[in-house]
Amino acid sequence: MAGDVSPRPRTFEELGAEDGLVAYEADVSFPADATLTVDGLRDRAVVFLDERRLGVLERDGETSLALPADGGMGRLTILVESLGRINYGPYTGEGKGIMRGVMIGRRLVNGWTHRLVPQEVPALPTDATDATDATDGVAVASLDVDEPLDAWLAFPGGAKGMVWLNGFLLGRYWKVGPQETLYAPAPLWKAGRNEIVVLDTDDLGATVEIRAEPSFGETEEFIGS
Question: Is the pTM of this model over 0.90?
Answer without folding.
Answer: no
